[in-house]
């Protein structure tokens, strides 16, 4: 192996006489360099990359707008608090204005919220902002130094220096603040020089984004110092609380909490933000890219059961988008209908073969009855290109109708008792795409509940469903390219539902006994007294006839109208459009990502499997010829020491004798080497080999595969199997 390539070495330093870089070099580099993609031009010039970039840019901009609108109210209230309390803090003696921002338990997204607040304060020039992380404030001295340094040095950073300002930049660099000068006395003098005369823009905002991670004693002393300085410096403290207000009360005793003026602000809960993101962006008919039911459920489960991070969910969705488009130029057709028609002409023979290999293409070919057409579809690219516009149009209309019916179905069954199919739109989306919804027992339970509803409740519910669907058609579907065709189909179905709903509304609850008696007379089988029945067969017939008559008598006009409209909803909406992906139109794979195995492997990962692969076969990751193995069980002396020790320990039982382990390690290292004439005796070990073995065993213990035995000092205990 190369001496600088080793699993057991992490950093290699080569002193080549390099000098310290000039301070102004980074600023010049920032002006001269432009951000470029890591991908080459041969990849970024492909049609699939253009389609991916366009789709992601639209989705990302929509997500940013939605998040800004969601957090706007809380940020405005927080801004009003900061700008309003800064004038009162100078007048109130030793009372520190404090805002507790309940951010929820989605810890990875906290910093983004405070970055937005900081940017707003900077753009409005409302205050000087300092963000203190718990890792930088392990002691009180470090906390005060970090706060003073960030408040004073904020304007000292060279930003966008022009050539004419070089002298000013050099002077600014010379006056760079040192950590030893970061004291409250220096902050007083700096504030008096910069904000003399009672400037209203001089509030000093200190943000602690991870309140629970701070040391309690350090935090208490820090707050007491800030409150003691409120008479001369307009401090405003902002606490990022991830749990609840009980954490603040338990951390701050009375002598500290009495020095702060606390106000609580509540941000949007993470599940609520996710539901808004899914309903308004990812499930919007505006975008042609869709996730399969399993992929959608997988991403939501990561959010709900792992981290509650909306940013992590967005990145997972972005990875699915990349995997979908980067499969080839055939997936560049996953765009608007007009752009897809243009890109059909750019498809090559390899792209057409990719389309022919789609799973849904085979059923499409099998339903063709003409042999010549089948041959043309399978062999002639030009003929298939002529068929693609209609196939793509059918797919786009299918997903638009699916989304409209999902809106209707969500309003219909979302608020039923116990919510058998789910309460949220994302739950119904997953249930409808995974398997036929009508075959699920929860669906039958929902239909039974709907049939048991009263007349007023059912009419009101169905009226809300129709109104919500019509609103969705006018706002979401109508502006789209194929929106008119989808709207015409859905409005015809909704008009039929309105007519049947009028019949339900006019229906009476009275039993139709007259018609039933007439039917029984025309049948020629009048009911007789059961006491006069002569045989068992006749008794059976009379009982069956009476049961049918009782069932007919219990059916009212309202029940028949209700059953009729429920049957229409089931046939025209549920069975016709809320179909699983297995029953979707041909070529629906162009618009739907369903490779759940790749997403699970790359997003969640398996650390233990990855470690085993790296140690058992280093060539898999290092790609060096010296570690290339013919078999997985092979041991070579050119492998890293850690890999040799790991593969030897796999051959042992629960207890590993260290001396035997060392002898096996030495034999592997000496395999293939020429034996020296004056070979060292068997009982003597080369110190270099022993040192390498000791280091490899220590690294294996650090990884958690073994531990030293307390009962036998010359043995190690194996921990994994």
UniProtKB/TrEMBL annotation:
Domain Origin recognition complex subunit 3 N-terminal: residue ranges: 3-333
UniProt key word Mitochondrion: no
Keywords: DNA replication, DNA-binding, Nucleus, Phosphoprotein
Residue ranges constituting the Origin recognition complex subunit 3 insertion domain according to the UniProt record: 344-595
A family per Pfam: WHD_ORC
Residue ranges of the TM segments: none
Span of domain Origin recognition complex subunit 3 winged helix C-terminal: 608-721
Protein localization: Nucleus
Leader peptide range in chain numbering: none
Coiled coil, from the record: none
Main function: Component of the origin recognition complex (ORC) that binds origins of replication. DNA-binding is ATP-dependent. The specific DNA sequences that define origins of replication have not been identified yet. ORC is required to assemble the pre-replication complex necessary to initiate DNA replication. Binds histone H3 and H4 trimethylation marks H3K9me3, H3K27me3 and H4K20me3.
Subunit structure: Component of ORC, a complex composed of at least 6 subunits: ORC1, ORC2, ORC3, ORC4, ORC5 and ORC6. ORC is regulated in a cell-cycle dependent manner. It is sequentially assembled at the exit from anaphase of mitosis and disassembled as cells enter S phase.
Family of the protein in this entry: Belongs to the ORC3 family.
The name this protein goes by in its record: Origin recognition complex subunit 3
């Amino acid at each position: 192996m190369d001496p600088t390539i080793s699993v057991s070495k992490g950093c290699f330093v080569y002193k080549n006489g390099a000098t310290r870089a000039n301070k102004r070099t980074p600023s010049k580099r920032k002006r001269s360099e432009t951000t470029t993609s890591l991908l080459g031009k041969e990849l970024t010039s492909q049609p699939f990359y253009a389609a991916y970039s366009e789709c992601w840019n639209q989705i990302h901009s929509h997500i940013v707008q939605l998040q800004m609108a969601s957090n706007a109210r809380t940020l405005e209230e927080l801004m009003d608090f900061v700008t309003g309390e800064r004038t009162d803090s100078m007048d109130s003696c030793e009372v520190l204005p404090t805002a507790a921002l309940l951010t929820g338990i989605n810890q990875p997204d906290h910093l983004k919220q405070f970055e937005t607040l900081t940017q707003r304060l900077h753009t409005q020039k409302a205050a000087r902002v300092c963000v203190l992380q718990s890792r930088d404030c392990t002691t009180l001295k470090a906390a005060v130094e970090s706060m003073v340094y960030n408040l004073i040095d904020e304007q000292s950073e060279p930003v966008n220096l022009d050539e004419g300002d070089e002298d000013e930049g050099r002077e600014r660099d010379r006056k760079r603040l040192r950590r030893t000068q970061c004291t409250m006395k220096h902050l007083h003098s700096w504030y008096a020089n910069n904000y003399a005369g009672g400037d209203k823009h001089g509030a000093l905002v200190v943000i602690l984004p991870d309140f629970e991670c701070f040391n309690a004693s350090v935090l208490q002393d820090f707050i007491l110092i800030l409150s003691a300085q409120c008479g001369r410096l307009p401090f405003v403290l902002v606490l990022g609380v991830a749990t609840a207000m009980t954490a603040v009360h338990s951390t701050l005793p009375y002598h500290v909490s009495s020095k702060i003026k606390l106000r609580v602000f509540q941000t949007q809960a993470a599940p609520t933000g996710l539901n808004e993101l899914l309903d308004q962006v990812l499930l919007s008919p505006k975008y042609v890219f869709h996730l399969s039911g399993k992929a959608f459920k997988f991403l939501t489960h990561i959010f709900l059961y792992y981290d509650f991070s909306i940013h992590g969910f967005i990145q997972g969705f972005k990875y699915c988008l990349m995997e979908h488009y980067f499969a080839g130029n055939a997936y560049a057709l996953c765009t608007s209908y007009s752009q897809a028609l243009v890109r059909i002409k750019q498809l090559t023979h390899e792209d057409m073969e990719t389309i022919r290999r789609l799973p849904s293409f085979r059923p499409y070919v099998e339903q063709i009855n003409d042999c010549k057409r089948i041959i043309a579809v399978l062999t002639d690219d030009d003929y298939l290109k002529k068929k693609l516009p209609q196939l793509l149009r059918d797919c786009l209309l299918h997903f638009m109708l699916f989304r409209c019916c999902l809106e209707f179905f969500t309003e219909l069954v979302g608020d039923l008792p116990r919510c058998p199919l789910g309460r949220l739109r994302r739950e119904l989306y997953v249930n409808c795409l995974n398997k036929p919804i009508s075959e699920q027992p929860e669906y039958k339970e929902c239909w039974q509940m709907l049939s048991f509803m009263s007349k007023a409740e059912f009419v009101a519910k169905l009226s809300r469903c129709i109104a919500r669907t019509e609103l969705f058609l006018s706002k979401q579907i109508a502006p789209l390219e194929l929106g008119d065709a989808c709207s015409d189909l859905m409005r015809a179905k909704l008009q039929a539902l309105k007519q049947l709903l009028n019949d339900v509304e006019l229906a009476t609850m009275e039993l139709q006994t007259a018609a039933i008696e007439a039917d029984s007379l025309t049948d020629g089988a009048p009911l007789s007294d059961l006491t006069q029945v002569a045989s068992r067969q006749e008794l059976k017939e009379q009982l069956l006839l009476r049961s049918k008559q009782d069932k007919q008598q219990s059916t009212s006009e309202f029940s028949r109208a209700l059953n009729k409209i429920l049957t229409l909803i089931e046939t025209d909406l549920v069975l016709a459009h809320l179909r699983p992906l297995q029953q979707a139109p041909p070529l629906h794979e162009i618009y739907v990502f369903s490779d759940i195995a790749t997403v699970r492997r790359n997003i969640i990962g398996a650390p233990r499997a990855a470690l085993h692969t790296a140690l058992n076969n280093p060539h898999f990751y290092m790609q060096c010829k010296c570690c290339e193995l013919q078999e997985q069980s092979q041991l070579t002396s050119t492998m890293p020491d850690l890999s040799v020790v790991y593969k030897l320990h796999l051959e042992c039982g629960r207890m590993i004798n260290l001396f035997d382990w060392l002898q096996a390690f030495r034999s592997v290292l000496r395999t293939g080497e020429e034996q020296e004439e004056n070979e060292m005796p068997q009982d003597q070990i080369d110190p270099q080999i022993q040192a390498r073995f000791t280091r490899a065993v220590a690294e294996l213990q650090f990884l958690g595969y073994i531990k030293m035995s307390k009962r036998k000092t010359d043995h190690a205990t194996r921990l994994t199997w």
